[in-house]
């Protein structure tokens, strides 16, 4: 019985992603963002429970990737699609009716990222390229920033050039040969986890100071700290 528990949690991740997708295409982007958060919690829990119960399985690995493809692949693409749609602007001479579909570049590169992860033996204790949940959490923060932000936030986030640049940048980072540390604690010693403690501490401070607007800054911080860590070890 216990071997099915992690897979059941993964299915809740998938269900949360399906609900987020529904909200996204109905232009309820704030609700979609909240469901992304729920999906991320289930995504974290399934792996943790599998380790605790020692119930790792190949089907669980494949199911996790399939669930992530919806929650952290289709959903962010749909959210950027809707953000570009509601912006009501064109960019680079691309017709208004076609521009939103560029958001699905994130979906395509998320699929490439997940496929690459499944066959890459280098990514057992760290990541090569931006994890799909991190990419999606950044995208999901945008509607929350708009909901709680100012006119300046609105003008920046719904600028089609900003959205296109963000889409291309995230798509690149998903498949980039960029080593990034994982938030997996084998123990609580400072020596083994200093970079993780620093990241978590700074992230908490940023969230306390600027709330949802901290999320893009936290992703940037994650990349910078990973580069520093890689440089110090080389």
Automatic annotation (TrEMBL):
- List the membrane topology term(s): Multi-pass membrane protein
Keyword check for Lipid biosynthesis: yes
Q: Which residues cross the membrane?
A: 7-25, 31-53, 65-86, 98-115, 127-146, 158-183, 195-228
Listed A to Z, the keywords are:
Lipid biosynthesis, Lipid metabolism, Membrane, Phospholipid biosynthesis, Phospholipid metabolism, Transferase, Transmembrane, Transmembrane helix
Q: Where in the cell is it found?
A: Endomembrane system
Superkingdom assignment: Bacteria
GO molecular function terms listed in the Swiss-Prot or TrEMBL record = CDP-diacylglycerol-serine O-phosphatidyltransferase activity
Reactions it catalyzes: a CDP-1,2-diacyl-sn-glycerol + L-serine = a 1,2-diacyl-sn-glycero-3-phospho-L-serine + CMP + H(+)
Q: Which InterPro entries match?
A: CDP-alcohol_PTase-I, CDP-diaglyc--ser_O-PTrfase, CDP-OH_P_trans, CDP-OH_PTrfase_TM_dom, CDP_ALCOHOL_P_TRANSF_CS
Task: Give the EC number(s) listed in the UniProt record.
Answer: 2.7.8.8
* Keyword Metal-binding included in the entry's annotation: no
Family recorded in the similarity comment: Belongs to the CDP-alcohol phosphatidyltransferase class-I family.
| Name of the protein this chain belongs to | CDP-diacylglycerol--serine O-phosphatidyltransferase
The scientific name of the source species is Pontibacter silvestris
Gene name of the record: pssA
């Amino acid at each position: 019985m216990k071997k099915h528990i992690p897979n059941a949690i993964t299915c809740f991740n998938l269900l949360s992603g399906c609900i987020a997708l529904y909200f996204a295409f109905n232009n309820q982007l704030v609700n979609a963002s909240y469901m992304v958060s729920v999906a991320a919690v289930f995504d974290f829990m399934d792996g943790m429970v599998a380790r605790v119960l020692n119930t790792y399985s190949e089907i669980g690995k494949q199911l996790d990737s399939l669930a992530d493809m919806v929650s952290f692949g289709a959903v962010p693409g749909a959210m950027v699609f809707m953000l570009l749609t509601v912006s009501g602007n064109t960019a680079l001479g691309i017709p208004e009716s076609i521009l939103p579909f560029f958001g699905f570049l994130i979906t395509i590169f998320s699929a490439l990222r997940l496929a690459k992860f499944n066959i890459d033996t280098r990514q057992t204790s760290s990541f090569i390229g931006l994890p799909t949940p991190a990419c999606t959490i950044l995208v999901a923060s945008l509607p929350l920033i708009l909901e709680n932000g100012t006119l300046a936030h609105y003008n920046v986030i719904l600028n089609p050039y900003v959205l296109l640049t963000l889409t291309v940048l995230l798509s690149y980072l998903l498949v980039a040969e960029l080593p990034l540390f994982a938030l997996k604690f084998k123990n609580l010693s400072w020596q083994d986890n200093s970079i993780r403690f620093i990241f978590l501490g700074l992230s908490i401070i940023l969230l306390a100071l600027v709330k949802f607007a901290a999320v893009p800054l936290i992703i940037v911080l994650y990349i910078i700290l990973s580069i520093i860590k890689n440089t110090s070890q080389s």
